[in-house]
């Protein structure tokens, strides 16, 4: 059997490693269009903040290690451009301009996601960046070191945008942020989003919502960023308005697409075409809270999906359990965490959601450094089933969201969770953990 993988990052290399571990005698070929594989993309903003830390430190395992230690035929600088699903052939182009084609018995598409780049005038200026690949991170870091920018404008206010606001500020760069929509984090409960906004303001980040980007022009050594309302001036621009699944290759050969134009797969990671599988940020998955398909590009989902795809390529009959959509990120002193459905998502899924934001302390009140923590459960008013949770605080948010994620996986009600035996000691929590308090208060709104 010949197994071919398109894409050499999280899902692709997890799958290739699994294939070789289980069937070391089989041929496993990986095509990766760049020269970088298996790196921590999530670590790039923090690396950019540290001028002394080389970007290459983010590489978990280099290409040569996969080749020599695991005997994977990893071909970097190989971009797949087409698939003949009937003859089972992958076509592509090498970085030197030559072409290639390769037969396969089983194929995994793990092409990931790509940054959304608006089609506007000036978007290709050398001082305009996105942050998706390791090469993107290297370009930003080199620009900062060589050009010494004093000001930066970030377009977008999502995870990467907020992490990069902190990173650039740490490097002494004055940061301004704009976005098309009005609310800072539209998925977040307004009471919590306002806390994040205050944290940005306290750290001298200016942000201007409701400013759709129109054009970028050059004026001497600076850029002029034009919106519907105002003009902004900056030495560098970061486009951080989100990502989209890289599903064009799959679409071109007739593979069915699903949520957000991601590749539609079943729980065995199979696509609509026989012997072709998909995993990672290019593919959709099931949200176990809503019971509906979703597209959520997350590192753990990609790594797990790659392993499960490999099992099924080997006919080991492994199933992807679905996700609760759990994430956490940092913005200056704040930990910002979520799991499960937002209010809008819960309503669209047919629930009647209720919520209550509470303020508590991260530790027992006797500790002078006990910090405020704001958190909420979202639950179904009719059944009390927990649908989601959001937490913001300077400490304790990241670890507490995992308890809520497990509650979602177990399909707990508020009462079920309220009766859980959570650990207590004054350095870590009040006697009644803030999550228990939140559950208790929201239970009063349940029918």
Could you describe the 3D structure shown?
This protein is of the alpha/beta class and 447 residues long. The chain is 27% helix and 28% strand. Strand 11 (174-178), helix 6 (190-202) and strand 12 form a beta-alpha-beta unit. A five-stranded parallel beta sheet has the order 3-2-1-7-18. The protein has a five-stranded parallel beta sheet with strand order 9-16-10-11-12. Helix 1 (10-22) runs parallel beside helix 8.
> What fraction of the residues are assigned to beta strands by DSSP?
25-35%
Structural class computed from helices and strand pairing: alpha/beta
Task: Kindly report the average pLDDT value.
Answer: 96
Number of strands: 25
User: How many angstroms does the end-to-end distance come to?
Assistant: 57 Å
Q: Give the count of helical stretches.
A: 12
Q: How would you sum up the global shape?
A: globular
Outline the fold blueprint.
Blueprint: E1 2-6, H1 10-22, E2 27-32, H2 44-49, H3 63-69, E3 73-76, E4 78-84, E5 89-94, E6 99-103, E7 106-109, E8 113-115, E9 128-129, H4 134-147, E10 151-155, H5 159-170, E11 174-178, H6 190-202, E12 206-208, E13 213-219, E14 222-227, E15 231-234, E16 236-239, E17 243-245, H7 248-252, E18 276-278, E19 285-287, E20 292-294, H8 299-313, E21 327-331, E22 334-340, H9 343-348, E23 353-361, E24 372-380, E25 386-393, H10 397-409, H11 414-418, H12 434-443
Parallel strand pairs: 1-2, 1-7, 2-3, 7-18, 9-16, 10-11, 10-16, 11-12
Antiparallel strand pairs: 4-5, 5-6, 8-17, 13-14, 14-15, 19-20, 21-22, 22-25, 23-24, 24-25
Helix pairs in contact: 1-8
